[in-house]
Structure formats: C-alpha cells, structure tokens
Write a structure and sequence with these properties.
The chain has helices at 4-12, 47-66, 94-104, 109-116, 135-145, 171-191, 213-224, 227-233, 235-248, 256-268, 283-288, 295-309, 316-329, 337-352, 362-369, and strands at residues 23-27, 31-35, 43-45, 74-81, 87-93, 124-126, 165-170, 200-209. It is flat, with a radius of gyration of 22 Å. The longest helix has 21 residues, at 171-191. It has 15 helices and eight strands.
Length: 379
C-alpha cells in the first residue's frame, strides 16, 4: 500500500502543514546535508521564495513564447512537478493538437480529450534553463530532491561535509511541499493575469500535474480551473463525479470497523476497476470517506496499531496495514491528549522493533506535533 498520494492530497488541500523543522543544504560538488538551521554563508529559500521563483520563471517563458508566431489559439498551460523532483512547463495550441491527433487516429471522445490534455503530447516544452535567473533556484531544488529521499536522520550535518554550503531549502519544500507551491504559483499567475500575453482560446486552462492522473483530475486541476470550466473541458469527469456520489450512499450504513475493513480492500484493489479509482479518484478520497467517524476512527485505528506493532514478526500485508491505520489518524480530527500520548508510545515501540523501519514512526511523531485540518494555503 502506498499512502504517499493521500499524504500529498492532505498537503494540497491544506489539511497538513509543510514541515518546518529544518533545511536541506546544497554544498559545492552537489553534496547535500540536513540541519535545523541555515549554515553561515548559505542563501535561504523559503516556501514563499520558491513560489516566487516558479511564478517569475513561468512569466519569463510566457513572455518569450508570446513573441513567437506559434502564439495562436493556446488552450492549455501546464506546470508539471513529478515525483522525481523535476519541473517542466508545457503549452499547446489547437493546431499542434490536431497534428498530434492525426498521428494517433483516435475516434472516441474520451481518448481524444485525454490526448488533448496530456502534457507529454504537448508541442511546447520548457524547463529551468528557460526560466531566466529564477531557473537557478529550480535547478538547485532538483539537485537536492534527487538525493533527498529517506529519513532525515540519515543525512550528515553541514560540518561533516567538505564542500562549502551554497543554499538551504526549507525541508517542507522538498518533502512533498513543492506540489502545493506549484499550485500556489499557478493561482498567483492567474490572479496577476499573466496569461493575457497568450493568444488564448475561450476554454484556456492553466493547471498543475503531478504525474498521477487520479490525483490531478480529482485535486490539482480543480485548484486552478473554475468548476464550470472544468466540467466543460472534462464532461466525462462530471459524469464520474455524479456516479461517485451516488455510489457512496451505499457505504454510509457501515460502522467504523466495517468501513476500515472495506476501504482497506479498496486501497489494495487495482486502479482500473476498483471503486473509487474507477471514478477517477485517488487514495486521498478513500481516507476522506473515513473522516466522518471522527474520534472513533482514531480509537479503532490506535487499537489495531497496538496489536500490530507488538508483534516481533509481521506478514507482508501487515506492514501495509500499519501505513493504513497511521494515515487514518490524520483524518480523525483532533486527538485527545491520551491518544497523542498513546501515539508517542507506539512510535517509540516502532523505533525499538527490529521488524519495523523508523520511517513508520515519523508520521506518528509529526501527527502529534501538528494538529490535523490546519489550513496553510496562505504562504
């Protein structure tokens, strides 16, 4: 089970704050370290700074493209931020799309529309090298992100690295936050009318893509595209949304324990045929359906976690269950002091259990320190 997309959904929806506990530092020779403070001599990049770099970098690209002869009937602008910490900017025009459509020879409306809004098939692609002076910030981010997977405790302190520190990025930017900042950047570009330099179609849209279609269609696109326009451009999604809401009614009768069991199976199901993936919803939507239980969801999840982490040996499926129940706690509302204390005990047990990785304890510690449902969309 991969709860990454639920975590990302929480961040995109402002339910979980970006991490603030330190900095990833880029040194000469492309070495990186982690520390709770910025080393002397290193520039600092905050979440606000990073958003500004994206905004100004995109403006540079827009200004350049606006002077090209191809600036006719532009229907889409996409800021693509993938899981490999790479940023790309894509644009497409109606004439370019029609040329691409001839190559594919699609005839079904859903296939044609999917092709029309797939950034990988857009004719105009840009990256940090095209973003002027602000491209350097994006390049530095990509260098850090490429090496920043894993637990923070695995990284050296700055004084343990020979290379001179160059720049320090707030850890939350690297740890999933860059997708939220990409959304913020597009929202700012729209608010500033930055896309007016383009010769746009009446249905022009600007949006962010993460590389996960389910997350993009259910969350990121809706953050920057007006709901009326969204359904005009993606009529098939309107039908799926309506069907999704109708089907949800049949699950409202389940109690908290039954719901936990049911949605566990859904998380393990295939994307193509399992509800809610069949309705273009991500893992995040699964956990949102559990939040209606509130604190009883926390009680049941903690009880099940206690049973699992006490084991000296676990089956492969039980590792997935630990991820699942921990993620459920983020949708349980505010935990009581006793429940926070219990989560701390569970995190300690996990750290001392050789059968478990410390990575399982990190989200518990983070949950205790940060109340859920915090709105942090204003950065």
């Amino acid at each position: 089970m991969n709860t990454y997309y639920s975590e990302l959904g929480r961040i995109l929806d402002g339910r979980t704050p970006l991490r603030k506990e330190g900095y990833f530092i880029l040194h000469e020779g492309n070495q990186i370290s982690y520390d709770t403070s910025v080393p002397v001599g290193a520039a600092m990049v905050t979440a606000r700074d990073f958003t500004h770099a994206l905004v100004e970098g995109c403006k540079s690209i827009l200004d350049t493209f606006s002077q090209r002869s191809e600036n006719e009937q532009v229907y889409a602008f996409n800021l693509y931020a993938d899981e490999q910490y790479s940023f790309y900017i894509y644009m497409n025009t109606n004439s370019s799309f029609l040329e691409t459509l001839e190559e594919y020879e699609y005839t079904e409306p859903t296939e044609i529309n999917a092709l029309k809004y797939n950034p990988g098939d857009f004719s105009f692609q840009y990256w940090d090298a095209h973003m002027g002076e602000y491209g350097e910030v994006i390049k530095q981010f990509e260098l850090i992100g490429d090496r920043a997977s894993g637990d923070l405790s695995e990284f050296n302190r700055p004084d343990a690295i020979e290379g001179t520190p160059i720049v320090a990025f707030e850890v939350g930017i690297i740890k999933a936050g860059f997708n939220l900042l990409a959304v913020n950047a597009i929202q700012q570009l729209i608010a500033e009318n930055a896309f007016n330099v383009l010769n746009k179609t009446d249905q022009f849209i600007a949006y962010v893509a993460t590389g996960n279609d389910l997350l993009d269609y259910s969350i990121t696109m809706r953050k920057t595209i007006d709901s009326t326009m969204f359904y005009e451009v993606f009529p098939d999604i309107r039908e799926r949304d309506q069907s999704y809401l109708e089907q949800l009614e049949s699950y409202q009768k389940l109690n908290v324990s039954e719901s936990l069991d049911y949605w566990m199976e859904a998380v393990h199901g295939s994307y193509a045929s399992t509800f809610p993936y069949s309705h273009c919803k991500s893992e995040y939507e699964i956990f949102k359906q559990l939040e209606r239980f509130g604190n009883p969801l926390a009680q049941e999840s903690i009880k099940r976690l206690e049973s699992l982490v006490a084991k000296k040996e676990l089956e492969s499926e039980e590792y997935y269950e630990i991820d699942y129940y921990i993620e459920c706690l983020y949708f349980s509302g505010n935990l009581s002091e006793a429940q926070k204390e219990k989560c701390g005990e569970l995190a300690t047990i996990i750290q001392n259990n050789k059968a478990l990785d410390n990575a399982y304890a990190a989200p518990l510690w983070f949950l205790i320190a940060n109340e859920p449902l915090v709105n942090i969309t204003e950065l």
